[in-house]
Amino acid sequence: MHLKKALALTLGLLFSLGANAETYHWDNVAMGGAGYVIGVVPSKLERGVVYARTDVGGSYRWDAQNSRWIPLTDWISESDTGLMGVESIAVDPRNPGTVYMLAGTSYFSNGKTVIMRSTDYGQHFDLVDVTSQFKAHGNGMGRENGEKLQVDPGSSNVLFVGTRDNGLFKSVDSGQTWTHVSGLDVGSTANGNGISFVLLDPTSVSGGTAKRIFVGVSRYGSVGPNLYMSKDGGVTFAPVAGAPTDLMPQRAAMTPKGRLYLTYANGAGPHGLNDSEPMTKGRVLEYNIIGGAWTNITPLGMDNAWGGISVDPKNPKHLITTTNNTYRLQQQQLGTYGDHIFTSYDAGRSWVDLMQRGFEIDPNGIDWVKYSSIHWAGDVEFDPFDSKTAWVISGNGVFKTSDIDATLSTWKFDVHGIEESVPTAVESIPGGPLVSTIGDYDGFVHTDPAQYGIRNSPGAGSNTGLAVAAQATHVIARAAWDKIYVSTDTGASWQAAPSMNGNFGRLALSADGSVLLHSPAGSTTTYRSTDFGTNWTPVAGLSVKDAYPVADKVNPAKFYVYDRASGQMLVSTDGGESFTAKASLPVGGNSLVRATPGIEGDVWACLDSRGLSHSTDSGATFTNVDGISSCGAVGLGKEAPGATYPTLYMWGTVGASRGLLRSIDKGAHWDRVNDDAHQYGGAIQGWVNGDMNTYGTVYMSTNSRGIAYGKIDENGEVQVVPQVPVKPAPTAVCTYQLSSTWWGGGIATVSITNEGNDTLHGWQVSWTYSDGSYVSGSAWNGVVTGSAPTFTGSDGGGWNKDIAPGGTASFGFVVAGQDALNANVPTVTGDICK
Q1: Does an H or E element contain 54, and which?
Q2: What is the pLDDT of residue 328?
Q3: For this structure, is 512 an active site residue?
Q4: Which end of the chain has the least Cβ crowding within 10 Å, N or C?
């Protein structure tokens, strides 16, 4: 009887906990596109199945029922953030739910490259790491060229992929393993694009596989041919006779009648690279496979670069093509100029310029696009099931028309669900809107993050700095390339400051809005103005490159700067006229410190692998918060019900989880509020911030996926999970090695090899000499501090701060003080060292 009661109580408690379990809903702040969609790939087998790839913001699938794009790659982690660059997509011609993607970015994740494989329309992916064989670069030149990855129309098991530096590869086991195709003698090209497209002829299927394969190469001139054909399934290739030698192939499309249509340009695109690749000229050509005849079908008077080409599946004479990188002739809208879209009904013997015939853009609820244009139109695609419908890519998103034959063709800005921008800052104003800055398209003012906001105007392109006066929140400033803009009406209007020193950079406004500080990008001088930029004076005591000044939220006289290179916390108590060094912190943390709303002198510093540190005396001293093994970014938001201190948000690691964490008690306890399906490539832009009006709502920077935000929602898809602080077990082998020795010194190298299963985010190690040796001079690939006999080496926030499983980070320095040939090699120690 007692056992039954105990079980009933236990079950009742569990059901109660489950019913009250807190959940979050994650989405993106609605801005609309704002980035380069580099390819649209529709299935030719199932209506409405369309995939899109972007250069830095992942991939998407079209949801026809809800008329929006579904993101497919938000699960990508911080350590794999480079996979947000999707270079090519291939849909299985026999199964539209089977989709492959070639992903990787050269400057992220150590160039990691994978083939993603899905059999359920991109809901889940298996990853095949191909980094050791070839590397992708989703944000490289030529990224808008044709698809490098293709599934054989005769066999779902056979795939080909063209690479940037390593030629052509083939798989016969659905992408699990890859073999170099030796029959094509093509490697790297001067522009880094290599193979620009691979195209398999479905009419040539014989014996279960396609025999005719075309390969475009991103080169021209004496360096070698740029169009090859195989007639034996890729065993051998030969240059196609008569192909242009003064232009590079961009894209190709084929008809069932054996005609190949190609676009050419004098560069890889989407823009000019240098004098040898200006991306200013090109042609549209027809190649008749039967007989090998070439015909120039370029629209008359248009000798510019060409990009997209598509053939109507229902009518092989119905073509559509686009210019690329063209800003001339016909105005698109409201004084904007961009690319041209042409259509032909007689196999290119005559063309209709849609911009001249009658053209308009439907902003689709995203008003800022009225002042932009369709540009970098490197791809255009017919809907395989509706010849009147077509998509065209653009540097700001993707557009679609539902009647290409109309006298006035309307192109809808069809980007609902696609958010592809680099977010640089966001501020939630108490009692007011959400204000943001982003790359390319300035930023926005939002009254509701779920609804499209108002773009900051005047527009200046990329904005990097954003500041709000904490006690006079109607005063806001933002920094762009050559202008600082100031608003005195909470972002409703903006006025350009009369002058500016340097470009871009970071801003701070004193709590009362009377003082503006500006640290230009790349500068070691910070400037101060008391008249919104009419006059500037250099700030004393602050020779910090790329300083990130932060104002105290209460006292107008106080500002803070953390110098991540030296670890010094510099503080101003005279309204930003001068700074003085206060506390010494570890080097290499996040240069953006956070001042707590409503509490003078309360400051938080995020120190990467050294955790989170808190000051209550205006930066004079700091105390580390227990249980945090890594902190990438920190922010504050509205306090929880019943709490008196603002809510802390952190991108970091507590216990076994790395993600977006929330604390309502100054960091004593943490809950994870995102999950592995909502990582967005990590908060690599270096900030998170809380909403000052709604408890629990948090904004997160992403790897070019715009501003992600999470909010408490009883129907949310993410379970809030309390974190138990656990000191991670050491997983690295840390070694010290001498080389290139001479009398009295030598070169020392310290290496940290990660033998664990998780990425190490930041590192710090120490060693002690017992023989009189000491470090002489600066280190490379790391930062060395200390004095004889004990020294400390750390990543300094450099390129090698993250060590993937199996990876090694090394730094070097000169050691001196005695005959290094007889030196005693010290032991390297640290929390990460075994």
Answers
A1: strand 50-54
A2: 67
A3: no
A4: N
- Phi and psi dihedrals of 684, rounded to 5? -75, -10
CA angle 119, 702, 639 (to 5 degrees): 120
Q: How many residues does the chain have?
A: 834
Q: What is the pLDDT of residue 422?
A: 96
Residue with token string 């629209």: 299
CA–CA separation, 141 and 376 (whole Å): 12
Residue 501 near residue 520, CB atoms below 8 Å: yes
Which residues are registered as beta bridge partners of 407? none
Six-digit token string for 245: 């030698």
Q: Which amino acid is at 572?
A: S
Is residue 580 within 8 A of residue 574, CB to CB? The reply is no
Please tell me whether the overall predicted TM-score, pTM, comes out greater than 0.70 for this model.
yes
- Residue 154: partners with Cβ closer than 8 Å, 6 or more residues away: 202, 205, 206, 207, 208, 209, 210
The single residue listed with the structure tokens 């192939």 is: 249
DSSP sequence for 403-457: -TTSSSEEEEE--TT-B---EEEEEEPTTS-EEEEESSS--EEESSTTS--EEPS
Token pair 């050791």 is found at 132
Beta-bridge partners for 557: none
Residue 691 annotated among the catalytic residues of the structure: no
For residues 397 and 399, give the distance between their C-alpha atoms in angstroms, rounded to a whole number.
7
Question: What is residue 6's predicted lDDT score, i.e. its pLDDT?
Answer: 37
Written as one letter, the residue type at 57 is G
Asked if 640 and 647 touch (Cβ cutoff 8 Å), the reply is yes
Whole-number Å distance between alpha carbons of 681 and 83: 8
The one-letter code for the residue type at 22 is E
CA 152 to chain centre: 31
Q: Which residue has the tokens 């700001």?
A: 396
Q: Using a CB cutoff of 8 Å and minimum separation of 24, what contacts does 406-410 make?
A: 406/358, 407/357, 407/358, 408/357, 408/358, 408/359, 408/360, 409/354, 409/357, 409/358, 409/359, 409/360, 410/360, 410/361, 410/362
Burial class (CB in 10 A: 0-12, 13-18, 19+), 187: middle
What is the C-alpha to C-alpha distance for residues 375 and 324, in angstroms, rounded to an integer? 7
Distance CA 817, CA 523 (A): 36
Mean pLDDT of residues grouped by 10 in the chain (834 residues)? 36 36 97 97 97 98 97 97 98 96 97 98 98 98 98 98 98 98 97 98 97 98 95 98 97 95 98 96 97 97 96 96 85 83 98 94 95 95 97 98 96 98 98 97 98 96 97 98 97 98 98 98 98 98 97 98 97 98 95 98 96 98 94 98 97 93 97 98 96 98 97 97 84 91 87 91 90 88 91 86 92 80 80 91
Residues in a beta bridge with 671: 662, 722
Per the residue annotation, which of 362, 367, 440, 819 is the catalytic one? Answer: 440
Contacts of 22 (CB under 8 A, 6+ apart): 671, 712, 719, 720
Token output for 568: 């010094």
Q: What amino acid occupies position 336? A: T
How do strand 359-362 and strand 409-413 relate by DSSP bridges?
parallel
DSSP per-residue letters across 702-732: -SSS--EEEEE-TT-SEE-EEE---PPPP-E
Number of Cα atoms under 13 Å in the Cβ half of residue 755: 10
Bond before 270 cis per omega within 30 degrees: yes
CB atoms near residue 290 (< 10 Å): 8
Token look-up 């008391």 returns 530
d(CA 22, CA 716): 9
CA 721 to CA 115: how far, in whole Å? 32
Q: Which two three-digit tokens encode residue 271?
A: 């823009």
**Cα(257)–Cα(735) distance, integer angstroms:** 65
